[in-house]
Write the structure tokens for this entry.
Amino acid sequence: MMDMLMEQATNVRKEWSAVCDSVIHEKPKFIKRTRDKMWFSSLETMKNILDIYQFTAQKWIEEDGTVTLSLNEIDLVENGENEDAARFKLAQSILEYSVDYYNNYAVYSQSTNRKSHIPYIFKALIIDDAKQIGEIIQCQDGEN
């Protein structure tokens, strides 16, 4: 069934502008080049696909009154003077890690302990705003 939906890369290359317009205004495309199969979509479509993935963190109030957040999906931890500050620092760390992951995608995406990060990496890269990422982190009280 999937093969029937595939467009040949040669045709996509010949009609690049029309294919791009179609992907933006109509629907994503499945593209086949020899044995390689690809997905081509707008960032808006990808954002909608990734909406199901949420950033969640455990929250601890430290003895000095500061707040520590530990991200559940990726091994990142940040501390701030209050929850908002910790959220923003954690969001910045998510973005920095996402850029590093993307720049080293060939290695990181094949690593067994990092492969599951892929949807979160692309979600963060598409949002591309630490303040906005910080606002969507769902915090739960951590257990000591």
Summary: The first strand starts at residue 6 and ends at 8.
